[in-house]
Amino acid sequence: MIELIKSGGWLMLPILLCSVVALAIVIERFWALQAQKINPDFLLGRIRRWHDQQQLNSDRIRALHDHSPLGRVLAAGLSNLDTSRELMKESIEETGRHVVLELERFLNTLGTIASITPLMGLLGTVIGMIKVFAVITEQGVGDPTVLSGGISEALITTAAGLTVAIPSVAFHRYFRGRVNELVLEMEQEAIRMVEVIHGERSDNQG
Q1: Is residue 19 part of a domain?
Q2: What is the dihedral of CA 85, 68, 106, 190, to 10 degrees?
């Protein structure tokens, strides 16, 4: 493996570094984007119970805020409990935008790695072919072993770049889709909470 990296030339080092960073991001995002970490399914029922029992105080809202990303979004709405439905939704949407940015953390980096590693591989190919033609110019084509270094560098860097880029593209698309699913679920839970709070108030007043 070490010899393979050496034969690929100096461009193998940034490609190898990109592979390590991409792997770390993939592992971290798999861990961070678990459904129960982002959107616990029991929060809305807990809020409904607190509301029915008139226990929605600032301490509970603060604990909800610190519980999970969904908790932050719902707590933003509950902090405006005595306002109109529109103001409540605006506060939820504002907090939701910040939460989405957190869910997408490192995805831009992963997308960048997916884009630049094939280019680094292509650059390695160009450098390797330049070496090949330089050797041909100086020594001719009589000895194939003389040309093998440049050809090897050209092929290895291209293969290494594609090896890193292909799974990076796949995981980048997967995590984008995963974030969209989680955000949609979060929006649905927030809408239900607003309906619970304001709908029950309307019933009680009627």
Answers
A1: no
A2: -20
**Amino acid occupying residue 204:** N
Which stretch of 36-50, 79-93, 105-119, 130-144 has the lowest confidence by average pLDDT? 130-144
Q: Please give the Cα distance from 106 to 29 (Å, whole number).
A: 8
Query: Comparing C-alpha atoms, which of 139, 186, 167, 143 is closest to residue 44?
Result: 186
Domain count for the chain, please give it. 1
- Domain-embedded: residue 89: yes
**Amino acid at site 164:** V
Residue pair 165/117 in contact (Cβ under 8 Å)? The answer is yes
pLDDT-derived band at 41, boundaries 50, 70, 90: confident
Reply yes or no on whether the pLDDT at 203 is more than 50. Answer: no
Q: Is 73 exposed, middle or buried (0-12, 13-18, 19+ CB in 10 A)?
A: buried
Q: Rounded mean pLDDT of 143-154?
A: 66
Is 67 a member of any domain? yes
Q: Using the 8-state DSSP alphabet, how is residue 39 labeled?
A: S
Task: Indicate the length of the chain as a whole number.
Answer: 206
Cα separation values, 177 from 135, 143, 158, 173, Å: 49, 53, 29, 6
Looking at residue 80, what DSSP letter applies? Answer: T
Is 25 part of a structural domain of the chain?
no
Name the pTM for this structure.
0.81
Measure CA of the first residue to CA of the last residue in the chain; give whole Å: 75
Integer CA distances (angstroms), 204 to 9, 56, 78, 96, in order: 74, 17, 18, 29
